[in-house]
Amino acid sequence: MEKNKKAGINTKLLVLIIILLIVLGAAIYALSFYGDISDPESLFDEPVITPAPVTESTPAPTAEPTPTPDPDKVLSAQSDEEFMSKRTNILVLGIDESAEREDWGSFRTDTILLVSVDFSDNDVCMVSIPRDSYVKLYTANGNLVNEANPYNKINSAFSEGGGAQKKGFEYTMTTIEQLMGINVDYYCAFNMNVVKEVVDAMGGVDYDVDVEVTMNGRTLSPGFQHLDGQGVLDYCRQRKGSSDIARIDRQQRMLTAILEQLKSTNQIVNLPSIYTAVQDNIMTNLSFKQISSLSLVALRMDMEQLSRYTVEGKAMDIAGRSCWCIKAAELEKLVKDIWGKNITVDPEIDYDYMAAQLELTRQAIAPELNRGIQAYNTAYTLLNSYKNEIDSESYKNLKAYAKALEDAIDSLSKEELDMYTPPVEQLCYSICNQYGIQLY
Are 181 and 335 in contact (CB under 8 A)? Predict the structure, then answer.
C-alpha cells in the first residue's frame, strides 16, 4: 500500500479538483460568484435604494466601492447541510470515449478513482483502482453479472451495465461496494475530451514532454513546449511502448501542470467559459448544493489534508489478458486505515489464490499445453523464416490456425488446445514435406 501526504499539489488531487471541483463545483460556483460580483446588491437582504437622477444642479454622488463577496459565505449559503453531515464516497470515472468515437455507449472506464470526503475535518482520501483489476462483477442489485464466470476486469463493469444510457454507473458502483465493503452513493464521470477542452479554454499549457508520442498521424517530440488540447490529450492517452501504470503517471503529471498553470496565471476567472466548454462531457448524480459543499471543503482544507492511496496488486496473465490481481490483505488494511472498517475481501480474487489456480490448471493440462506450444513454435518458424517459399494459400491457412492456437495457449483452454493443435501440426508437416524444409 502506498500513502503519500505532502504539501503542494497532490497528483491525485487533480482528478478531483479539475474534473470534480473545478469543472463541476468551482465552475458552477464561479458562475454564481461571477453573477454575484456583477450584481452585488443581490447578496444582501436590504432593499436597493435607487439614487435620484443626476441633473445639472445636482452633483453626481461619489461612487462607493462595491463590496467583494466572501467565497466561504456564498458557498456556505448554497451548500447541502445534510450532505455534509456524514462522510461521503464519490466515484470519479474517466470514460474511454474521445472525438474519434461516437457516444458514451458501452465504453469502459479508463480512470477509476474513489474519493472519500470527511466533512467534519475537511480530510479527503483518494483511492486509485487500477482499470485492469481482476474482480467479480456485480449488477446494480448486487447479483453476480455472470454466475458461471463472474470474473472480469473492473473497467468492464460500466459496459456490462449498458454504459451511461443504462446502468453502467450503478454496475461500477456496486462492484466497488462489493469489493471494498463500503457504500458508494455518488458518481462524477467525464469523457476524454474534457481534458482537451479545458486546456483549449485556458489557452494551452506549457509542459516538458518526456517521451515521443505518436497517435493518429500526430507526433509530439520530447522537450519543453506549449501544448494545445489535442497535444495534451494525445500525451495522456499514449499507451504504446509503455505500461498502463506509466500512462497513469503521465496523466497525473499533466493534470498537475494544468492546475498549476490555472492557479499561477489567475485563470480562475475564466472558469465560466471553461465550464461552458466541457459541461456536455460531464455526467453526475451530484446536486448543485452537493457540488457547492465539495467546493467549500476544497476552499477550507489544507493541502496536507489530502491523502493518496492505490489498491495494491500484481500483474498476471489470465486467459490471454494482462490483469491486475489484487492483494486481499493489503486492501483490507487500506479500508481499515481510511474508513475504520474491518472487512474480508473475497479470497477468490486474491493474487496468491489466482496464481495457485493458474498453476493447477497448467499442471492439469501439461501434456496438451506442451504439445500445443511445440506445434505453435514450428508454425512460427515456418511463417517467419520461410514466408517467401510457401504458397500464399498454405501461408494464409497456417497463419490463421497458428493464431487460434496461440489464443488457446494463452487462455489455458484444454478444449481449444485439442481443437487447434492437430491442424497446426498437420499443416506444418505438409508444408515441410512439400517444400523440403527440415524441421522434424
Answer: yes
Using CA atoms, how far apart are residues 425 and 178, in angstroms rounded to an integer?
A: 46
Residue found under cell 486467459: 319
In one-letter notation, the amino acid at residue 69 is P
Strands (E), 223-281: 223-227
CA 433 – CA 259 distance, rounded (Å) = 66
Mind listing the pLDDT tens digit for each residue in 267-315?
A: 544 544 555 566 677 788 988 788 778 877 766 776 667 787 889 999 9
Question: How many whole angstroms separate alpha carbon 226 and alpha carbon 8?
Answer: 23
**Banded pLDDT at 145 (limits 50, 70, 90):** very high
**Per-range mean pLDDT, top range of 4-13, 43-52, 68-77, 124-133:** 124-133
Cα gap 8→14, rounded to integer Å: 12
Secondary structure (3-state) at 64? coil
Cell of 27: 465552475
Largest CA distance in the chain: 115
pLDDT bin (cut points 50, 70, 90) of residue 48 is: very low
Q: Where are the beta strands (DSSP E) in 192-290?
A: 205-209, 213-215, 218-220, 223-227, 282-284
pLDDT tens digits for range 370-390: 999 999 999 999 999 999 999
List residues bridging with 153 in a β-sheet.
134
Amino acid at 99: A
From the number of C-beta atoms within 10 Å of its C-beta (0-12, 13-18, 19+), residue 19 rates as buried
Burial class (CB in 10 A: 0-12, 13-18, 19+), 316: middle
CB 163 within 8 A of CB 129: no
Q: What is the rounded average pLDDT for all residues in the chain?
A: 79
Do the Cβ atoms of 116 and 339 come closer than 8 Å? Answer: yes
Burial, 278: exposed, middle or buried (Cβ in 10 Å; 0-12, 13-18, 19+)? buried
H helices within 268-365, ranges in order? 271-278, 288-300, 328-339, 351-364
Q: What is the pLDDT of residue 96?
A: 65
Buried b (16+ CB within 10 A) or exposed e, 214-236: ebeeeebeeeeeebebbbbbbbb
> Which H or E run contains 153?
strand 151-153
Residue 212: CB atoms within 10 A of its CB come to 12
Task: Report the alpha-carbon angle 306-252-83, nearest 5.
Answer: 40
* Cβ atoms 127, 30 nearer than 8 A: no
Residue 321: name the closest of 419, 417, 244 by CA.
244
